[in-house]
Amino acid sequence: MFRTVGQTLWAWHGDEGDVGMAWDWIQLTRGVVAMADPMAVITNLRLVGDEGEVLSAFESARHFNWIVHGLPWQHEVERALGTPGSGGATALPATAPLAALPSASAMAAPGSSLTQ
């Protein structure tokens, strides 16, 4: 069975620099898309722990997933795929969906801080 796959890129342009997050997704069934590998979020973000130490990739993964979970990326993918009820086109656009994040502080998972 052939499954549609792709990559989503979300970016935020702030006073202190640009932030980007990208991840692969897979369409499980019509109208249902999920992260292909929740441990493989690509980003230029570095998270800092309570003591000011930079968190490892493993320690950061749950925070990055918390951020991704809060983004409306699945709706954007469904719209790009033209899933009924999403208001989308019938063909994929040439570029991946891209949107601006509301604020850097809104992206921080509970118990973490963001730094570049």
Q: Brief overview, please?
A:
The protein is an alpha+beta fold. Helix content is 23%, strand content 30%. The protein has one domain (5-115).
Describe the secondary-structure layout.
Blueprint: E1 5-14, E2 17-29, E3 32-35, E4 42-43, E5 46-48, H1 57-70, H2 73-81, H3 104-107, E6 113-115
Antiparallel strand pairs: 1-2, 2-3, 2-4, 5-6
**Distance, first to last CA:** 41 Å
Low-confidence stretches are 88-116
Shape: elongated
Reading the helices and strands in chain order gives EEEEEHHHE
Radius of gyration: 15 Å
Helix percentage: 10-25%
How many distinct helices? 3
Biggest sheet descriptor: 4 strands, antiparallel
Task: Tell how many strands the DSSP assignment holds.
Answer: 6
The oligomeric state is single chain
The overall pLDDT, averaged over residues, is 79
**Beta-strand content:** 25-35%
What's the number of domains?
A: 1
Determine the structural class based on helices, strands and strand pairing: alpha+beta
